[in-house]
């Protein structure tokens, strides 16, 4: 627990005293959490990363890139910074394996965060304030700056323990995930830089679990963003006429609302998980004739528009869904048209559903499960992620990718006010990644346990070497 007079001392206005008070307050807080010196340092680095304001719509990526590059330098990692779009750097670290010709693994995370409404936060969203319970409040604490730093801390600890990976480990920090990743991960995965990494398995972000089981995601829903425009004749606001723009738009809104209810009912009844259904939400409405004080109240507008966020699972019948949009939601007979803002495919580049196998046919899944068990964790039933992440760009290439953020007993707060992650949970996640890296990149001895010797590499490693 923090000292009762800690807040008073931290409020000193003298710069030197402010720094000293901040150090004292931090030490008192971490003392209450019973952290070792190494754990304290790990938490401080996490807080430092969180303080970089990389919020949309105008994130400045250069300061955080300098910070990350310095972290890689301290660890002795090979570092590469590339800009496929000016002002949007991608940072790639490599821990060279003892057998670099083997297929590698990639740990991906993004550096950008979504906007905040400062008035609704109990602590400034870029101060990375840790309260007396060890909760660290910051935008990005769950989504997903925690994961990026956990990757590096796991590598730091493994290096200190003398571990040497057999296959190479790459760690990427990409921009713009929160705005679909078109100038970030998409271009990275399509680049020759990525091809040279020889990646066979990718880990990316998941979400927190509110119970004691870790959530893991083997696929995600594709984004279909579109708007529907209704046309009609303008008329006096007092007249009752058929064929008006808002009347046509109401037809569309009612049809979509019925479909939304039918899909939502499947979740409420337990028939399907939320990631398995098609979700659609009306995210904006636009109509009316503007005036200096608002809208002209006695004119029925000639056009009205509604925007929609629809998420489509990889198992959906997209042809039937497209037909529904054409014939039921935006039929031309009702003077309705539509235009897509973004329409992602649900298949990979080979025409198969963009899904990573979570059964014994996938040796990476076998090792991932093994690692979680060795770390003392348990996995919930694998799911399709409700939203979308940069992992889709790996799956599009047929590369196995899992979405995983090691947070248990934690409220899901991504994109919400007062986003936080507890320091103890953050530190536990580092240990989980240590075990994942040991299991997925270290050779096996005769007992199947990870070893740093090349002898007796085990059946599972031999299978991976041959098949991947």
Automatic annotation (TrEMBL):
Residues 218-328 form the Peptidase M20 dimerisation domain. Pfam families: M20_dimer, Peptidase_M20. It comes from Riccia sorocarpa. Its cofactor is Zn(2+). The active site is at 112, 177 (proton acceptor). It is found in: Cytoplasm. Keywords: Cytoplasm, Hydrolase, Metal-binding, Signal, Zinc. It comes from the Eukaryota. GO terms for cellular component: cytoplasm. This is N-acyl-aliphatic-L-amino acid amidohydrolase. Residues 442-468 are annotated as: Disordered. Its EC number is 3.5.1.14. One of its GO terms (molecular function) is aminoacylase activity. Zn(2+) 1 binds at residues 110, 143, 205. Zn(2+) 2 binds at residues 143, 178, 415. Belongs to the peptidase M20A family. Binds 2 Zn(2+) ions per subunit. Residues 1-32 form the signal peptide. NCBIfam families: Ac-peptdase-euk (TIGR01880). InterPro entries: Aminoacylase-1_M20A (IPR052083), ArgE/DapE_CS (IPR001261), Bact_exopeptidase_dim_dom (IPR036264), N-acyl_aa_amidohydrolase (IPR010159), Peptidase_M20 (IPR002933), Peptidase_M20_dimer (IPR011650).
